[in-house]
């Protein structure tokens, strides 16, 4: 009776304003198929089929979201709705519209569930009410069903769970956070969506091999790897059928989904061994590189440093082209080959403008930047032979440097937890890095026996490390750690390095301060669409403060 009454009142109000669709939400209907059934029937009956009842995916959050989004009325301009983020964990099974037990926290339960899930061939569905067979399929039931049930098939993946992450903040250096869109690739284009799904699927077997190897190749690791592959493949199949199933879909979301699935099956750092090996190999040749750089003129050194960052960015285990290169030589051989091929002009080449800002022109010598945020990408040559020498140059000029790295592992990306050890090893070969690391608190004990033989005054500017608040190859600057937000307040230079952070996301981002975006393009389709170039083209995009 109450549901029919609600349906009639709702239709009469819609009629006043000439509306055809009526959205219902709230605790009264959440998960209650019979309530939705009767409301739908009432709206169809009173409107003679002219209006439709619609039900929201996250109806239980509607009131809270409405209150949260009214922050402008209350002068809370520092809050953003993007602090509500959607994650992709596997929660408790849904059967008959009811949650059966707490979320699956036990790993063996998750694996067993996944194996059973795939054997039965159950389609993935988000935990939302599904219409019984006798419906129009457009939101209104033809006749009321006799009992209140949801689709009664086997356990479903509980995906797209909404979380409030109060520790994540908006990056304060964004020029306009309200218009900021991190994703560069438009996945609303079905062809684009299909292409990237194919790329992720083709990379899956290699990723599983690396994940299993990182856990010793045990039978348990193999079983978890198989379960991960099934779960991720099932998510992709679901998204191919319904791209908006988990909310607005971008390439960054797909990559985040992959990392979430890995962590669900306790693969917390699939490339751990590879990263350690490549860090050691790169650190072994760092002293020679620093000596080479110090023998150059100022102009030549700056160019060589940018070339070094671009050349070292070739090492990316998320790229099929890069994975194929590993079969052709060692990490150092590949790095040297990449450096030799650095020829200007690059596909996007703003180096001259950046050089003027750094070194000036003619008699004019610009003030050095006060603080630079360096968003670093991969382990190995990328960080050791690319970004650390660039950081060293900025420190030499009196600029504070903050290395910004992932909070959680993703592919072979370096993490904030790993950076202090890498910096400590590099500092053994360089007074500049050593003094800056001590000033930034990265080195607790003063080191002796500097191996490169030369001494320079210890700079007063610090070298620091902060985590960015994410565990993905990309970064959404509406959701960064509070530590990064605090470090950004005094920064006047942002350097985004790598495909994920400067091409897949943030290529079009505008900042309040100077920004430099550096990357080697390691995907042919991205090269053609974004910079109208080819694979292995380089991007050096400099944008003064807006």
TrEMBL record:
<dbReference type="GO" id="GO:0015937">
    <property type="term" value="P:coenzyme A biosynthetic process"/>
</dbReference>
<protein>
    <submittedName>
        <fullName>Pantothenate kinase 2</fullName>
    </submittedName>
</protein>
<keyword id="KW-0378">Hydrolase</keyword>
<dbReference type="GO" id="GO:0004594">
    <property type="term" value="F:pantothenate kinase activity"/>
</dbReference>
<feature type="domain" description="Damage-control phosphatase ARMT1-like metal-binding">
    <location>
        <begin position="222"/>
        <end position="530"/>
    </location>
</feature>
<dbReference type="GO" id="GO:0016787">
    <property type="term" value="F:hydrolase activity"/>
</dbReference>
<dbReference type="GO" id="GO:0046872">
    <property type="term" value="F:metal ion binding"/>
</dbReference>
<dbReference type="Pfam" id="PF03630">
    <property type="entry name" value="Fumble"/>
</dbReference>
<keyword id="KW-0547">Nucleotide-binding</keyword>
<dbReference type="InterPro" id="IPR036075">
    <property type="entry name" value="ARMT-1-like_metal-bd_sf"/>
</dbReference>
<keyword id="KW-0533">Nickel</keyword>
<dbReference type="GO" id="GO:0005524">
    <property type="term" value="F:ATP binding"/>
</dbReference>
<keyword id="KW-0479">Metal-binding</keyword>
<dbReference type="GO" id="GO:0005829">
    <property type="term" value="C:cytosol"/>
</dbReference>
<keyword id="KW-0464">Manganese</keyword>
<dbReference type="InterPro" id="IPR004567">
    <property type="entry name" value="Type_II_PanK"/>
</dbReference>
<dbReference type="InterPro" id="IPR035073">
    <property type="entry name" value="At2g17340_3_helix_bundle"/>
</dbReference>
<keyword id="KW-0808">Transferase</keyword>
<keyword id="KW-0067">ATP-binding</keyword>
<dbReference type="GO" id="GO:0005634">
    <property type="term" value="C:nucleus"/>
</dbReference>
<dbReference type="Pfam" id="PF01937">
    <property type="entry name" value="ARMT1-like_dom"/>
</dbReference>
<keyword id="KW-0418">Kinase</keyword>
<keyword id="KW-0173">Coenzyme A biosynthesis</keyword>
<dbReference type="InterPro" id="IPR043129">
    <property type="entry name" value="ATPase_NBD"/>
</dbReference>
<dbReference type="InterPro" id="IPR002791">
    <property type="entry name" value="ARMT1-like_metal-bd"/>
</dbReference>
């Amino acid at each position: 009776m109450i549901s029919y009454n609600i349906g009639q009142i709702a239709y009469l109000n819609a009629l006043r304003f000439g509306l055809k669709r009526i959205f219902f939400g709230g605790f009264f209907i959440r998960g209650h198929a019979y309530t939705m059934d009767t409301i739908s029937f009432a709206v169809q009956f009173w409107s003679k089929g002219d209006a439709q009842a619609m039900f929201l995916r996250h109806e239980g959050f509607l009131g809270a979201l409405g209150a949260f989004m009214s922050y402008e009325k209350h002068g809370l301009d520092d809050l953003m709705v993007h602090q509500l983020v959607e994650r992709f964990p596997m929660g408790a099974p849904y059967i008959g519209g009811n949650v059966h037990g707490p979320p699956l926290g036990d790993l063996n339960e998750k694996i067993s569930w996944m194996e059973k899930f795939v054997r039965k061939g159950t389609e993935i569905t988000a935990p939302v009410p599904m219409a019984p067979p006798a419906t129009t399929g457009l939101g209104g039931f033809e006749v009321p069903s006799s009992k209140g049930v949801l689709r009664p098939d086997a356990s479903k993946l509980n995906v797209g769970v909404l979380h409030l992450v109060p520790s994540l903040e908006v990056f304060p250096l964004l020029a306009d956070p309200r218009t900021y869109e991190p994703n560069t690739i438009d996945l609303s284009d079905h062809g684009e969506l299909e292409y990237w799904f194919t790329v992720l699927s083709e990379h899956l077997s290699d990723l599983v091999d690396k994940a299993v190897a990182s856990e010793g190749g045990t039978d348990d690791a193999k079983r978890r790897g198989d379960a991960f592959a099934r779960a991720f493949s099932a998510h992709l199949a679901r998204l191919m059928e319904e791209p908006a199933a988990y909310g607005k879909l971008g390439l960054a979301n797909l990559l985040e989904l992959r990392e979430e699935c890995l962590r669900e099956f306790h693969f917390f750092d699939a490339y751990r061994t590879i990263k350690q090996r490549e860090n050691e190999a790169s650190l072994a040749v760092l002293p020679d590189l620093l000596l080479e750089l110090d023998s150059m003129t100022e102009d030549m050194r700056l160019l060589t440093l940018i070339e070094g960052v671009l050349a070292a960015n070739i090492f990316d285990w998320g790229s099929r082209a890069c994975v194929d290169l590993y079969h052709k030589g060692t990490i150092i051989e590949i790095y040297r080959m990449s450096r030799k091929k650095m020829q200007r002009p690059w596909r996007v080449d703003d180096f001259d403008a950046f050089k003027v800002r750094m070194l000036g022109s003619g008699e004019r010598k610009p003030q050095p930047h006060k603080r630079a945020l360096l968003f670093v990408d991969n382990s190995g040559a990328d960080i050791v032979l690319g970004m650390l020498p660039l950081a060293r140059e900025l420190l030499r000029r009196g600029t504070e440097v903050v290395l910004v790295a992932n909070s959680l592992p993703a592919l072979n990306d370096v993490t904030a937890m790993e950076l202090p050890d890498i910096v400590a090893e590099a500092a053994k070969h360089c007074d500049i890095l050593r003094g800056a690391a001590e000033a930034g608190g990265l080195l607790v004990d003063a080191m002796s026996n500097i191996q490169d033989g030369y001494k320079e005054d210890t700079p007063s500017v610090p070298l620091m490390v902060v985590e960015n608040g994410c565990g993905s190859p990309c970064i959404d600057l509406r959701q960064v750690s509070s530590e990064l937000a605090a470090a950004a307040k005094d920064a006047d230079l942002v350097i985004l390095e790598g495909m994920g952070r400067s091409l897949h996301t943030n290529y079009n981002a505008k900042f309040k301060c100077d920004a430099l975006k550096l990357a080697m393009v390691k995907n042919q389709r991205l090269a053609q669409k974004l910079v109208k170039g080819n694979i292995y083209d380089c991007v050096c995009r400099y944008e003064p403060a807006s």
